[in-house]
Design brief:
The complex is a heterodimer of chains A (about 400) and B (about 750). Helix content of chain A is about 50%, strand content about 10%. Chain A is α/β, with parallel strands linked by helices and about 400 residues long. Chain A has a seven-stranded mixed sheet with strand order 1-2-5-4-3-6-7, with helices on both faces. In chain A, helix 9 runs parallel beside helix 11. Chain B has about 750 residues and is an alpha/beta fold. Chain B folds into five domains: about 10-35 and about 260-425, P-loop containing nucleotide triphosphate hydrolases (Rossmann fold, 3-Layer(aba) Sandwich), CATH 3.40.50.300; about 40-250, P-loop containing nucleotide triphosphate hydrolases (Rossmann fold, 3-Layer(aba) Sandwich); about 435-495; about 505-560, no CATH class; about 570-755, no CATH class. Helix content of chain B is about 35%, strand content about 25%. Chain B has a seven-stranded mixed sheet with strand order 1-11-18-17-14-16-15, sandwiched between helices. In chain B, a hairpin with a 4-residue loop joins strand 12 and strand 13 (about 275). In chain B, helix 10 (about 200-220) packs parallel to helix 17 and helix 20 (about 650-665) packs across helix 22 (about 745-755). Chain B is globular, with a radius of gyration of 27 Å. Chain B starts with 8 loop residues before the first helix and ends with a helix. The chains are: A alpha/beta (about 400), B alpha/beta (about 750). At the A-B interface, helix 1, helix 4 and helix 7 of A face helix 17, helix 18 and strand 21 of B. The structure holds zinc ion. Zinc ion binds near residues 733 and 736 of chain B.
Chain lengths: ~400, ~750
């Protein structure tokens, strides 16, 4: 049988996809229409048309440097000059990555004196990314920072992959990459269901997008555009990407304010997150300021903060302070066992008061026994055996 | 019974050979003589560090096949090394790879193993060598279990990346830009155990290698391939089909071998008329009862997980009777937790376990040391795996004993009558069809995702352009500026499994066991195997099909114990689409071509075990299934039926008998399962109206199986004839022409009469 007949049969046996709506393969008219809509410019008109769209808007002055030292977990030691930042975000043909994922819209933003400038490259067909690379390399010249949202795991690797496929190099390793997603999680992870850019915008920047196209629908929309030449979804996508870049810029400044003074947050969940951050970077002074803010808002500290603080004291060798906090937490359901363990350790190894150490250990074992009677599966066996072991050791030391 | 002291294997063999009762069932006692090693010096130019490291392992010279492999590979050729188990296969490919890595530390090698379990020992061996070499060579396993945080290191720093085809397909090639270091410097691809790459899996692998080579070309590398294979009839042909390049064959093995005793054990006939023999499980129990008190360490291979469990229970009972600690008898199969498996492997090595009953999970790749005796409870389905299972017995260069216990199936009975297959060349060929349209298309999509196709680029033969244009029409690719680009949102490799030809299967769900998934049946076979009220047999257990939900592609079954099975009433329509080759032979015309096969299941018969009485029937309403595939068929000439004996019903029974035997014996020539092919007899074929037997590949688009039968047909028919003639039953039985029903008493006789006229 000839191959055409075989292919006919193959078509009948494979799962049917929705047929394309219409088939307008000539893109020149839609490309022109998009260009006109945004008052853009066509690059490489004869070779591989790409639409470049530039918009600027006034913003607060950018010449003040900002600090993100703590929120970056001490990665950004030096103050950041927003004028040195290149904000970027891609729209692509797939959400799973891989070599066949094509970035058809690349948006960039940067401060230009007292204005913010957004430059977008829309690729109206496949195989055009090669030409954009020359342009975007220039954008990064003279800048020190990349700012993105989830760009560390998605946008930048994708761009690097495209550079390899086009046999060119990006050399953006020299830029310091600030991924705002990570910073936002350090502040708002407990305050909202999701830390995607849309949610952060809505709750923290008060931005409500209208007529926005959801990110998940964008790949399909582009493929529809390629097949049909219908432009309205692409116009919404370009606006979506524009808003993303704009939000990145606002979010950076918002986070800088939180770094400078967390009081403005007025959010006890965010304070708990920052307390955890302060503990991780071992900044007691910062921790205490967060704890104060929390107490003011909630009329008292929280067990969780107390426990973290006790561990901070322990790390610094301030044992008396730690012991006081542990004694306070001894009745607390969530911290009882870790605190009894800490107390037993302290009295065994530092104070060398074996009798007291044994008291704490036995107390823990008694509680564990009660819990086990209520529900045999509720008790962590490794924890229990650690206490049993400790008890045996202390008894032998005492005898 | 009194526990006897441990005796040597030689003494045991002596004792068995004088055991009258045992000897009665031995159809052949094959003694394969020991073989002296053939050594070769280390090749000139071999790195001093490598010589020193091997010296520390006690290796001061090579076996001849290792040296030959080294020579061929270092001369820039691809190679396939044919090796029995435990013959230094790993060093055959490690030697050229390590030499190259030492000379050029930028070089990279990719090791592919057909399954994850198989790679363990080989990785360990490479790691050992690296430790002794004290060189900066890194070898990593990259598979589904590799932690995310070390993946980056493996991508850039791994000199040897060990993985499996599935991971290459879904995890590496679609993300090739992350593996730039590997692909720019890839010098070697090692394909271990290539005989596993046959049928669908092999056809997928060949396409996967097309993709791999395409990516390598993009990064400017062109790797050499080093393959290893078990002993099959066509290792070079298979390797060349897989990699589509010339390959040097290295089959003279220089490793020593101890004396092997290979016993063919046929359980006694209990009902001659029906051809029924005593069960394998029962016989294995008796054999083990004889061997257990000697203290010999043994492995018993069973064909299914269920058989493992049954045998384990029986053998423990035997141990109890003999007052032997039952903990010395253990089972081993997939589904056991890794920790338990390690415990058993170690128990075998240190001798605390005397008997292990296993599925083919222990066939190779896992280090359990060498045992004294291997017992095969049923023919494992291929000669290559029989050797691998037999290879588990025999301490290095010492004597070993293997006992193959046959079931009543035609293939087992054929093998037991033909021990010569184990002395002469293995007749099994591994077949693939890389150009099966369904498989090819899947990989063409993946390849387009990985890199856009250029106009005029070749992926396969000369139809690449047409296929790409088809995908453009289907809106899967976009053709622009002289290239074809992937234009779908999805990630194509995710939807394609290398182990199936079509993505659609019916899932079987056991409602009597928490809705556990029992298995899958391909869509084409589902109507006849798992229609409503069918008795579906899985690993020897009966299940009643309560419902077949065609839209959801699910069948719901529950466990039952009944004394009947079901036989689907199907109507097969065959339409010849194209004739590709034909030849006239004495008594028939043989044809190779393409068929459209449609099958519809209309009902079923309930048939009682043993007596094969028809005890009821039912109707079902299921859609007709169509398949286009490749086939071979024999059209018998009218002359051979000129004897008035051949009434139409007698011809029908004869053809049916031949077909039953054919279906069962074909796997001896072509490595496949009986379910991979279908044999359909027709008293009057459409158009020609001649008595005809069709053999077709049960895969959309064909898999090259019937093509091979076309080439070997006289050999296969001759085997069928001899086998039916030799069977001791009167009117046909499950071991030859199939179970006899009340009204089919001529099957055996008619089949013989037909075959006799073909002058085979
Ligand atoms: Zn028979």
């Amino acid at each position: 049988m000839d191959i055409q007949k075989k292919l006919e049969y193959y078509r009948t046996t494979t799962v049917k996809e929705k047929p394309p709506e219409t088939d307008v393969k000539k893109l020149s008219a839609p490309v022109k229409a998009i260009r006109e809509h945004f008052n853009g410019e066509i690059l490489f008109p004869s070779l591989a048309p790409i639409i470049k769209i530039v918009r600027t808007l006034p913003v607060e002055s950018s010449n003040k440097t900002i600090s993100l030292k703590r929120l970056s977990r001490m990665k950004l030691q030096e103050p950041v000059d927003p004028g040195q930042c290149l904000f970027f975000d891609l729209e692509t043909t797939g959400l799973n990555g891989g070599a066949g994922t094509y970035p058809f819209l690349m948006g960039f933003g940067f401060f230009d004196n007292d204005r913010f400038k957004i430059v977008q490259y829309f690729l109206p067909d496949f195989g055009r990314d090669y030409y954009v690379f020359q342009e975007i390399k220039r954008l990064a010249e003279g800048r020190s920072y990349l700012v993105s949202y989830n760009g560390k795991s998605y946008d930048l690797p994708l761009l690097k992959s495209r550079a390899i496929l086009n046999r060119t190099e990006l050399n953006w390793e020299r830029l310091i990459h600030i991924d705002l997603l990570h910073l936002c999680r350090r502040v708002w992870k407990n305050s909202q269901d999701s830390c995607d850019l849309g949610s952060v915008e809505r709750y923290r920047l008060g931005i409500n997008r209208e007529h926005d196209i959801p990110g998940g629908l964008i790949p399909q929309a582009y493929l529809r555009f390629i097949n049909t030449g219908v432009i309205h979804e692409m116009i919404r996508t370009i606006e979506h990407n524009y808003q993303d870049i704009l939000s990145l810029q606002k979010l950076l400044l918002k986070l800088a304010k939180i770094e400078e003074n967390p009081r403005a947050l007025e959010d006890h969940n965010a304070y708990l997150r920052l307390g955890k951050l302060a503990f991780e970077i071992q900044d007691l002074e910062y921790f205490e300021s967060i704890e104060r803010l929390y107490s003011q808002l909630n009329g008292g500290s929280s067990a969780q903060l107390k426990f973290l603080k006790s561990l901070l004291h322990k790390k610094r060798g301030e044992w008396e302070k730690a012991v006081i906090l542990w004694e306070e937490l001894i009745e607390h359901r969530d911290f009882m066992f870790p605190v009894l363990e800490e107390l037993a350790k302290y009295h065994e190894h530092l104070a060398q008061d074996y009798r007291r150490a044994l008291e704490y250990t036995e107390r823990a074992l008694k509680h564990l026994g009660t819990l086990q009677q209520l529900n045999p599966y509720s008790v962590d066996e490794t924890r229990k055996s650690a206490f049993v072991h400790r008890s045996q050791r202390l008894r032998s030391k005492l005898s | 019974m009194i526990l006897r002291p441990r005796i040597t294997l030689d003494e045991l063999i002596n004792r068995l050979s004088s055991d009258q009762e045992f000897q009665k069932n031995i159809t052949k006692w094959l003694t394969i003589n020991e073989r002296q090693p053939v050594y070769a010096d280390f090749p000139r130019g071999l790195d001093e560090r490598l010589i020193e490291a091997l010296g520390k392992k006690g290796i001061n010279k090579l076996y001849s096949h290792q040296a030959e492999a080294y020579r061929e590979v270092m001369a820039g050729k691809n190679a396939v090394v044919v090796t029995p188990t435990a013959s230094g296969k790993t060093l055959s490919y490690n030697l050229p790879v390590f030499q190259t890595l030492l000379m050029n530390p930028e070089s990279r090698a990719l090791y592919l193993f057909p399954t994850k379990a198989l790679s363990q020992d080989q990785v360990k061996e490479a790691q050992d060598l690296i430790k002794l070499l004290n060189a900066d060579i890194k070898s990593f396993t990259f598979d589904g279990d590799t932690p995310v945080d070390i993946r980056r290191t493996i991508r850039t720093a791994g000199h040897i990346v060990v993985t499996n085809p599935d991971m290459l397909h879904q995890g590496i090639l679609p993300h090739h830009t992350l593996w730039i270091k590997l692909f720019e410097n890839l010098r070697f691809v090692v394909l271990d155990e290539i005989h596993a790459y046959r049928g669908v899996f092999g056809s997928h692998l060949s396409n996967l290698l097309r993709r791999l080579k395409r990516i390598c070309a993009f990064y400017g590398s062109k790797p050499q391939f080093i393959c290893s294979s078990a002993t099959i009839a066509n290792p070079r042909e298979l390797a060349e089909e897989l990699i589509e390049e010339p390959v040097s064959l290295i089959e003279k093995n220089g490793a020593p071998r101890g004396q092997k005793h290979f016993l063919f054990y046929n359980p006694p006939v209990v009902n001659r008329e029906l051809g029924l023999r005593r069960s394998v499980v029962n016989e294995v129990r008796n054999i083990v009862r004889k061997l257990l008190p000697t203290g010999a360490q043994m492995i018993v291979f069973a064909r299914s997980r269920l058989r493992v469990e049954i045998l384990l229970t029986y053998l423990r009972d035997v141990a109890k009777q003999l007052k032997i600690d039952i903990k010395k008898i253990r089972g081993y199969r997939g589904g056991y937790l890794p920790r338990l498996r390690r415990e058993i492997e170690n128990g075998l090595k240190d001798g605390s376990i005397q008997v292990v009953v296993s599925t083919n999970a222990l066939e190779l790749g896992i280090d359990i040391g060498q045992l004294d005796i291997s017992i095969l409870a049923g023919y494992p389905g291929s000669i290559a795996s029989t050797w691998q299972q037999a290879g588990r017995a025999g301490r290095r260069q010492g004597t070993s004993l293997t006992i193959l216990v046959a079931t009543s199936s035609p293939l087992d009975q054929y093998i037991i009558e033909h021990p010569e297959y184990f002395v002469e060349r293995n007749p099994e060929t591994a077949q693939i069809d890389p150009d099966n349209l369904f498989i090819l298309m899947s990989h063409l999509k993946c390849a387009a995702f990985e890199l856009p196709f250029e106009e005029g680029e070749k992926f396969t033969a000369d139809i690449t352009g047409e296929l790409l244009d088809f995908l453009v029409e289907e809106n899967i690719l976009r053709r622009t500026d002289g290239k074809y680009f992937w234009m779908r949102e999805i990630y194509p490799a995710e939807e394609i499994s290398l182990r199936n030809s079509s993505s659609e299967n019916v899932v079987i769900i056991d409602t009597s066991d928490n809705n556990r998934v029992l298995g899958e049946v391909d869509l084409f076979s589902a109507p006849e195997l798992i229609h409503k009220d069918a008795i579906y047999i899985h690993e020897g257990v009966q299940f009643h099909v309560d419902e077949l939900d065609w839209d959801e592609k699910k069948a719901y079954v529950h466990k039952v114990k009944v004394n009947h099975y079901t036989d689907a009433v199907t109507k097969t329509n065959i339409k010849v689409l194209d004739i590709l080759e034909e030849e006239r032979e004495k008594g028939y015309q043989k044809v190779y071509g393409e068929l459209a096969v449609s099958r519809v299941t209309t009902g079923y018969k309930k048939i009682k075990f043993n007596t094969h009485e028809n005890i009821g029937m039912g109707r079902v309403h299921l859609p007709e299934m169509e398949m286009q595939t490749t086939a071979l068929w024999w059209e018998f000439t009218d002359q051979i039926f000129s004897d008035p004996y051949f009434r139409e019903s007698v011809i029908g029974e004869g053809l049916k008998g031949i077909s039953y035997t054919l279906n069962n014996l074909i796997p001896l020539y072509i490595m496949c399962d009986v379910t991979d092919i279908s044999v359909v007899p027709m008293v009057r074929a459409p158009f020609s109206h001649k008595p005809t037997i069709y053999v077709y590949d049960k895969y959309q688009g064909g898999m090259g199986l019937s093509k091979k039968v076309f080439e070997l047909d006289r050999m296969v028919l001759k085997a069928v004839k001899e086998h039916i003639e030799k069977c001791s039953c009167s009117h046909g039985c499950p071991s030859c022409t199939g179970p006899t029903l009340e009204n089919t008493l001529f099957g055996k006789e008619s089949a013989i009469k037909i075959l006799q006229q073909l002058e085979l």
